[in-house]
Amino acid sequence: MTLGNRTRLQFEFIEMLLAYEGEITNQRLREKFGVTSVQASRVLASYRDAFPYNTKTLKGQGRGRYVPTARFKPEIADLTIEAYFRSVKDQVTHVKVEDTQRDFTNVDPALFRVIHSAMDQCSATRIFYRSMNNPEGIERVVHPKAFVFAGRRWHVRGFDELTEQHRDFNLARISHAGSASKGVDTPTDVEWEEKVQLEFRPHPSLTEGQEKLIRDELFKGTVGRRITTRRALIRYVLRDLEAAENPETQHPPEFQIYLFRTKSLRKEQ
C-alpha cells in the first residue's frame, strides 16, 4: 500500500495510540497535526477503510473514538516505547513525561553557521580548538563531514589537516571558526563509510536470574540484540548503552551487557 508522507505519519500515530494507550480520538489527531475536526474524521475513516480489522467504535463515549480490536496488528508503525514517546512528546496534557537528558554543549550559532556552510559546500574551515591535551587551544584546518550527537555533547566529524586523520571535534571546544581553503583533497573516511553490526549479550558475570532479567528487559527475552551503526561511532554507542567492550575488566553492576561480536557489513569486492 502506497501512502504519502503525511498520511503515513498520521496512520503511524493512530497505531501508536491504539497499541500503547488503547484508544485513538478525533481530538488527539487535531492536536497532533493541526487539522480540523472534519479532516481528522477523514483521516480516521481512511485508516479504518485501509485496515478494517484493527479498530472498533468505542460505544457510549461520544463520536470519533476508537479502540483496537482483538485482531489488532500494526501495519505502519514500528512499535517501540521510544517511538511512542517520540510520537506523543508534544502532547504533555495527555502523557506525563520527564526527560533527564540534557545537552551540555554550548555552541555559538555564528560559529555553527560557518561549519555548516563549509560542510554544505564540501569546503574547509579554520578552527581554534581546545582539548584536554591542548587546553589553551590550537589552530586546525578541518573538512567537516557530519554532525554527531553523542550523549550530552554535539560533535562535528571531519578530516583534520594537522594530524591527517578523520576526527571528532566537540563543538563546545571550538572557540573560533572561519572559512579556509583546503590544503589537500579530502580522503575517504573509511571508518565513517563502513557500517557494522554490533551484537550485545548479558554480561557473562551475571547470575542466571540476573541474566534472564536483562534478557527480558533489553532483548525481548532473546539471547541478545543486534544494532547497526558506523564503525566510527562504536565508542559512542558503547558509552550510551553502558556496555562493556572487555567483560574481563569491565564488571557488573556498572556494566550489565557487553559487546559480544562486531560484524562488518561492508560488501565484499
From TrEMBL:
Residues 8-88 form the DNA-binding transcriptional repressor CapW winged helix-turn-helix domain. PROSITE patterns: WYL. Residues 196-261 form the DNA-binding transcriptional repressor CapW C-terminal dimerisation domain. It comes from Hydrogenovibrio thermophilus. This is WYL domain-containing protein. Residues 111-177 form the WYL domain. It comes from the Bacteria. Pfam families: BrxR_CTD, WHD_BrxR, WYL. PANTHER family: PROTEIN PAFB, PTHR34580.
